[in-house]
Design brief:
Elements (H helix, E strand, L loop, with lengths): L1 H11 L5 H11 L6 H17 L6 H19 L5 E10 L6 E6 L2 E7 L6 E10 L5 H8 E6 L2 E6 L6 E12 L3 E10 L2 E4 L2 E11 L2 E4 L2 E11 L2 E4 L8 E8 L2 E4 L7 E9 L2 E3 L5 E4 L7 E6 L9 E9 L2 E3 L1
Parallel strand pairs: 2-6, 2-8, 3-7, 3-9, 8-10, 9-11, 10-12, 11-13, 12-14, 13-15, 14-20, 15-21, 16-20, 17-21
Antiparallel strand pairs: 1-4, 4-7, 5-6, 16-19, 18-19
Helix pairs in contact: 1-2, 1-4, 2-3, 3-4
Amino acid sequence: MEERMKILQLVAEGKLTPEQADMLLDALDNKQSPKNDSKMAWDRATDELKSLGTQMSSALMQGLSELRRGLEVNLSNLTFGETVNASVEHEFPAGIDTLHVTTTNARVRLEHWTQPFVRVYVHADVRVEEPHRAKEELQAAVVTSAVDGQAILELRTNTERAKIGSSRIDVYLPDSMRTVTVKSRNGATFADHIEVQELSLDTVNGQLRLDHTKCVTMRLTTQNGSIHLFNALCDEARDLFATSRNGAIHVNGLPSSIPIQGTAKTINGNVQVVHPSLTVLYDRDDRKNHCTFERGQMGDEVNGLSVYLETKVGKITVQ
């Protein structure tokens, strides 16, 4: 209140124009934003005043300094709410065969189930002023849509009144899925016993792990994290593309009855392809960081599995 009165007094004395006063009052009204945002708003307001070339008297400058100190004291006493764990669920209608998931700071788990529809459970730490509204705010952060068999789910990091922290997304998939993609900025992604024709997992920071999956094509990419496949390649698999900028790649278990052709390479690390059914050819015997491997012959009438594995820093194993 004192800050507002001081601004109005400066206007009455002709030392501030109404437009300039509005900028300062807007900065004061920004108290509900995070501390840094309010401080930035005040800085912008005072910087804009200076850029106008206004001839400020020493009294005005002192008044602005006092207002700034008062604002900083008020900001230091602000409460930013508390963190509450909340959960919500969403069920897509039957007939969905394509799902796109986008998230930040969340661990994603894809699992198979026998129901004919996709169900999603979201668990998150919600930082909110009013704890009883945590679930409502989390629901607002989960954005979904479903049109013509395609579904989209996005978990946003904030709403107007809350911030969404560490999260977990559990997705239950029927066996009729054609395409599933997951894009995550920070968080691991796990796939367990799912049946998908086309699977694409992409994360900036986090590991990717697949267990007993049945997919025709798989595209797995991570900037910082390892990639693990455990019995994740079935006889129907046709293409595996897995790359990591900084992390190991492990493939444990290959399909038993189809031809295989693959490449594995790393810049800083080594490659070990030790599956007994594969013929392996290394580029250099003294530094095993690049090799090709194969089993059987693929042709126009013989389908097989094509494998490409690459990491900049890390070890690659196929066994």
